[in-house]
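Key result, reporting period 2: structure in, sequence out.
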């Protein structure tokens, strides 16, 4: 049997309550409070030194990356069209036939042929390789047709320069500060007067006109009169790469101006009934991209 000391008055229990319970881990804050001042200073200095080392290393990595990127941008090739394309005589014919624009409007399509075209390119940067050019034509009617295929002239978008096209001619190198020209024998197109649901086109037995899908009614076709006024746009792209196989491209849009129409109110309009036509190509405002 245990007898409490009457003189204690509960003081022993209070002292025992203030003692930390055995086995309970100290918190970081408690350890920090119990650490000597000089050890606190050493710890703070160690943390600061470690952070400074991390910041210094990260700064060096970023600096090296930016320097290499800046060097690559300064020394990368930059191939552009140095002048507008031009019609040149069609090679391989005897006697040589001058370059011309020819078109024909049927009740199913507009047929366009441009032959031949010469493109001048120049490299204002480092050495380029795998250089080739591509060109597509766009016909626009001067009178609206409610068909975007014939009403809108723009062919260049933000994605135009992102995808590398398939070369139709042999790729070639182009050294720094060099320029040359490339010929495309023919740029042609068949612009259907009915809306296509897929990219494939079938032709009639004569092989001249496209065959419309059976579910498209003739009343839904676009009507273009044989003597309708048209305009031609050419989108030309030059694709190339550098020594590290990084791909680049630049595209520009040109507008056909008919010979003898320069000083008229409508220097760009013509009808297919006037073809074959000679003329020149002028750069347009906008219609340009570069990668």
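The corresponding designed sequence is given below.
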């Amino acid at each position: 049997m245990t007898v409490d000391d009457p003189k204690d008055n509960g003081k022993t229990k209070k002292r025992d309550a203030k003692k930390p319970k055995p086995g309970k881990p100290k918190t970081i804050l408690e350890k920090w409070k119990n650490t000597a001042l000089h050890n606190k200073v050493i710890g703070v200095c160690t943390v600061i030194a470690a952070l400074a080392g991390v910041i210094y290393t990260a700064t060096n990595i970023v600096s090296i990356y930016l320097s290499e990127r800046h060097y690559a941008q300064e020394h990368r090739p930059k191939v552009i069209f140095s002048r507008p394309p031009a019609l040149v005589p069609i090679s391989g014919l005897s006697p040589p036939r001058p370059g011309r624009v020819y078109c024909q409007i049927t009740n199913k399509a507009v047929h366009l042929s441009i032959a031949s075209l010469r493109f001048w390119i120049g490299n204002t940067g480092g050495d380029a390789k795998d250089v080739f050019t591509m060109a597509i034509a766009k016909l626009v009617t001067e009178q609206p047709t409610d068909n975007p295929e014939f009403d809108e002239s723009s062919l260049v978008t933000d994605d135009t320069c992102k995808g590398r096209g398939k070369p139709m001619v042999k790729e070639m190198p182009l050294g720094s500060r060099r320029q040359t020209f490339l010929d495309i024998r023919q740029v042609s197109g068949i612009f259907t007067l009915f809306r296509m649901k897929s990219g494939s086109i079938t032709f009639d037995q004569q092989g001249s006109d496209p065959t419309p899908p059976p579910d498209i009614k003739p009343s839904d076709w676009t009507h273009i009169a044989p003597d309708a006024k048209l305009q031609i746009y050419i989108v030309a792209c030059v694709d190339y790469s550098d020594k590290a196989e990084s791909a680049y491209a630049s595209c520009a849009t040109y507008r056909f101006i008919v010979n003898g129409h320069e000083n008229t109110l409508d220097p760009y309009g013509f009808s297919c009934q006037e073809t074959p036509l000679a003329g020149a190509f002028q750069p347009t405002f906008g219609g340009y991209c570069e990668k």
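The first strand starts at residue 79 and ends at 87. The radius of gyration is 38 Å. This case is discussed further under Risks and Mitigation.
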